[in-house]
Amino acid sequence: MIRPFISRLARLLGVVATLRASAFLRRLAEGAADEAQHVEAVRSSGACALYVHMPFCHTPLCSFCCFVRYPYNKRLNARYMVAAKKEVEWLLTSAEDLKISSVYFGGGTPTIDVEGLAGLVDLVRGHLGGGVEVAVEANPRDIDDKAVEALRSVGVARLSIGAQSLDGRRLVKLGRLNHTVADTLRAVETARGKFKTVNLDILWGAPGDDLKAVREEAARALSLGVDQVTFYPLMPPAPPRLGEDISRGGPWHPEEPSLYAAILGEALSRGYNPATPWCMEKSKGLIDEYVVECDDFLAAGVSGIGRLNGYVYLNAFNVERYIKLVERRGFSAVRAVRASGLENALYYASTRLFGLSLCLRDLEKFGGPGALLSAALGAALPLIGEGAGGCYRLKTPEALYLMHAAQKGIYMAVNSLRRWGIKAQV
């Protein structure tokens, strides 16, 4: 049970997170990337993760998705794969002090071209070695024995199956019309035991969702026995007039606290523990949100967002422009900005708290802004977290719900950036 005042506090926290993130992302959208500065930022980066965006999808495209995606076109996809390989190779050979331990292929639908994807994974492994852990998002309809073998052959460790729902009627309401529940059940059985981690993505908090439906959805997903189930809330782009929209309920489900508590309760009762407020796992493994454990990450592919020592960059959104940029110079960054000390400290604290733990002394590296943030959090965290010596762990449903609200607010701002990029075709 999440008390009413915690629900109100979470809503406020979500609004503040959206406003702060939106202000930074507006600066990013307005800042043209300088080629020389970008090359230097990549060269001197100590990135520990790599994200590669694969934009092509089965049709019809999902109406709820805010990520950059395009209907699959075999010829264009082939050209894109060539460019993506070139950009990945440029990144991995240009950076001089890489510490990459995980690589994430998202979309879009990376598995729409399993053979091409396997070739790209193989390229990454050729540069980074066998120790790197690779995670891949998948549409359930793509997962058969042949696809599993192709992904296993290049050492994919985590397969994330985008079920979204295990109720056919909900899939229709969500606008997820390019796979069926039967596809998901078959994919789970095909992948079970073949990867270090099999994850199932479930979407909740859509209009019309009620407590009974969400609890039953969570119970069914968890009963499949996969290693992880990640319950993503619906995260539409932040509305232009956020304050007015929030006052009328905004992009928050009217029963959001109860829905979240039901999901968490079902997970805990079945032996799953939260790795983040959204990701429920049986044992420690790779999660979708690599930013929780990695401050600096490279990004390749259309619309990728990278972060290197406070230098944040955004890749081209238009596929043709992306291909031309990579052909000409090896990378596709078109926007960039350098975060302030406070923005860096806030980013670090928010990602660690989303991972449910934070040591305040780690904020010292951000200087004065870090000290101010540490003082503020030092007053707040003892009220919601457990710990000693300035290190805190968030465990209670109410603490998790607060972090859910903050991260949802941040991602709504990011989805507004994506909406802008798609419209502007930067």
What top-tier CATH class of the domain at 35-292 fits best? Answer: Alpha Beta
Neighbour order of strands in the largest sheet: 9-10-8-7-6-5-4-1-11
CATH topology of the domain at 35-292: pyruvate-formate lyase- activating enzyme
Assembly of the depicted chains: single chain
Just name the CATH architecture of the domain at 35-292: Alpha-Beta Horseshoe
Strand-pairing-aware structural class = alpha/beta
Helical proportion, percent range: 40-55%
Task: Find the count of extended strands (DSSP E, 2+ residues).
Answer: 17
User: For the CA atoms, what is the radius of gyration?
Assistant: 21 Å
By CATH, the superfamily of the domain at 35-292 comes out as: tm_1862 like domain
List its salient traits.
426 residues; alpha/beta; pyruvate-formate lyase- activating enzyme; 9-stranded mixed β-sheet; 3-stranded antiparallel β-sheet; 48% helix; 18% strand; globular
Describe the structure.
Strand 16 (386-388) and strand 17 form a beta hairpin. With 426 residues, this protein is an alpha/beta fold. Helix 12 packs across helix 14 (397-424). The chain has helices spanning 4-30, 35-43, 74-94, 114-128, 145-153, 168-174, 181-191, 211-223, 242-247, 256-269, 319-329, 341-354, 367-384, 397-424, and strands spanning 49-54, 56-57, 70-71, 102-107, 133-138, 156-164, 197-204, 228-233, 273-274, 279-281, 297-300, 305-308, 311-315, 333-338, 357-359, 386-388, 391-393. The protein has a domain at 35-292: pyruvate-formate lyase- activating enzyme, CATH 3.80.30.20. Strands 9-10-8-7-6-5-4-1-11 form a nine-stranded mixed beta sheet, with helices on one face. Mean pLDDT is 95; it is low at 242-249. It starts with a helix and ends with a helix. The relative contact order is 0.16. It is 48% helix and 18% strand.
